Amino acid sequence: MMPPAIVILGAGALAAARNIQALYPDSRVHALQGRVEADVAYSELGAHLRDLYACGTPIVALCAAGIVIRCVAPLLSNKGAEPPVLAVAEDGSAVVPLLGGLAGVNVMAREIAAALCVSPAITTSGELRFGTCVLNPPEGYTLADLGQGKRFVSDLLAGESTRVEGEAPWLDDAQLPRSASARLAIRVTPRAWDGRVDELVIHPRSVVAAVTLGDLRESAGARVMSQLPAQAGAAVGKGANAHARAEEADIEAAASIEARVRACLDAHGLAVLSLAALLASTEDMTNAALAQAAARLNVPLRFAPMPADDNDNGASPAHLLQTALRVPYETLHDDRDEAVALALAPLAIDPGTIGRARGRLTVIGLGPGSAELMVPAARKALDEATDILGYDTYVKMAGPLRADQRVHGTDNREEMQRAHHAFELASAGRSVVMVSSGDPGVFAMAAAVLEALDTSGNSAWAAVELRIVPGVSAAMATAAQAGAPLGHDFCMLSLSDNLKPWSIIETRLRHAAQADLVMAFYNPVSRARPWQLDKALDIVREYRAANTPVVLGRDIGRPGGTLRTVTLGELRSADVDMRTMVIVGSSTTRQFTQGAQWVQWVYTPRWYR
Ligand code: SAH
């Protein structure tokens, strides 16, 4: 289970919150900003609870039950997918499970109540009677039909007893009314439920479907994509069409793979919900149709190497099962389809033990610093990562991370080495996130990662699922605080001559100044580059008036961040350090102050007169 978010509104709840936190490794206490400090700060309770709920995070809120209910009420439509939500009195005197009966809310209520030495306010009849939620089987098992499950439990509550058929060790301690001759039966089986109302069917995820692509590989998108002209040029239109065709081909191929797997399961009377994973050959790792098919079947996609065979006769799905599975199983074929084979194991299988996953490398931007300015896709990538790489300061900014996540922090500024390391981890099947500050594509790691891939010629690296997630760059974050200095044409320049000759920087500065572009300077100075900023300002002053506004943002979005506006004439390099963003206005950039507080705004109008 995901660790819960323990949410408090004030200091009075902190002690009880920390007691609860001790029960759940990696859980964090979320506290209302400005009222009390804990592990994670939030600014508005309703929005925060809804965000947590929408992400499926279990919630323990130390406040009135009514407040919690009102906050999440707009989201309560899908009962099957709700996380546990509990209200706990801020002094720890009451524990009220509110939502998430099928996600173990009552189990949590019992655990928390025991820790706080009170009785949980459990209201679920089945739970009270049997001491467990029969409709909430453990990881690796799935209820065949929730509606039937509810009918079944109400029959039990009405006084009927039940048999248990199959392996259900989690029911051993339940106080179920058992009888070998009962009309009702709890059946743990991979076989599909036939609709009998006197059965509660629970499927163990004990089946693996292996597929070989054969003819499907030919029709799948990868092939069409590889035919796209390398230099798109005039063929952009044609390329776009080919791309659309490739996507259509993928969708068709995915539907076909899904249908063939379903047909094979059907032929053997097995339930789709018994499927633990889809298994394919490592050579098909980049095939988009396979990934879509696994998503449609709602199972992880795993890979195993296909044994080499000179005659190509060995390339069967049964061979894949042989290489990938470490548990005993029975192989099942579909006589009409050689491209699919099933492995049926006696117990649920952990998909993480089947072959290997396709590795993933996601290069993310954290934004300038505060969690609020990190895009949700970056947060999601961090949450899903097994390994996190980056410069120490940024890795700290990305936290807090879970204990099971491996951090490869480094002081090493050698970016290409870091990119190589990331590909090595990802090509071994890990889910790697590389962090940059701001936007990863602006003077940061994304270009280094792509350069490493481009120049490596390494096919294992090429099979990695690579994604770049944008972030709020320092220029944008600084501009927003100052007003809108980038409101018209602008450019971003790095003043560092570590990776380019100073002469290029000078030429660019002159051209940008002549073109009357607003300029955002990254890496304006450092101890190793003491004179460069003064030289750059001398050049700009040749073209721009001394009263041109200059915005200086230091540590924007981070603790102790400052924002100043000076004129180009006043600016001294001593006002600037390597944590500063310098935005030099154009001829039209202006500033004004307004209101009783004398708020100062800087903006560049969208027009020239
Ligand atoms: N990828 C980053 C930029 C990396 S270059 C981005 O998109 O923001 C590093 C430079 O960015 C620093 O020298 C500084 O000029 C600027 N910078 C990065 N974070 C900043 C922040 N929080 N406040 C002000 N400037 C920042």
How would you portray this structure in words?
It is a single chain. With 609 residues, the protein is α/β, with parallel strands linked by helices. It is 32% helix and 22% strand. It has five domains: 5-123, 3-Layer(aba) Sandwich (Rossmann fold), CATH 3.40.50; 141-203, no CATH class; 207-228 and 237-353, 2-Layer Sandwich (Nucleotidyltransferase, domain 5), CATH 3.30.420; 360-472, Cobalt-precorrin-4 Transmethylase, domain 1 (3-Layer(aba) Sandwich); 477-603, 2-Layer Sandwich (Methyltransferase, Cobalt-precorrin-4 Transmethylase, Domain 2). It contains 19 helices and 28 strands. The strands form six sheets. The protein has a six-stranded mixed β-sheet, sandwiched between helices. Helix 13 (392-398) links the parallel strand 17 (387-391) and strand 18 (406-410). It is globular, with a radius of gyration of 30 Å. Mean pLDDT is 90; it is low at 220-234. S-adenosyl-L-homocysteine is lined by residues 368-369, 436-439, 442-444, 473-474, 478, 522-524, 553-558, 578-581.
Return the structural class: alpha/beta
- Ligand names: S-adenosyl-L-homocysteine
- CATH A-level architecture of the largest domain: 2-Layer Sandwich
How would you state the average pLDDT, rounded?
Answer: 90
Report the span from N to C terminus: 61 Å
- Overall radius of gyration: 30 Å
- List how many beta strands DSSP finds: 28
Stated plainly, the CATH topology of the largest domain is called Nucleotidyltransferase, domain 5
Spatially, the strands of the biggest sheet line up as 3-2-1-4-5-6
Global geometry = globular
Largest sheet at a glance?
6 strands, mixed
User: How many distinct domains?
Assistant: 5
Pathway: Cofactor biosynthesis; adenosylcobalamin biosynthesis
Domain Cobalamin synthesis G N-terminal: 48-126
Domain Tetrapyrrole methylase: 360-571
GO molecular function, one term: precorrin-3B C17-methyltransferase activity
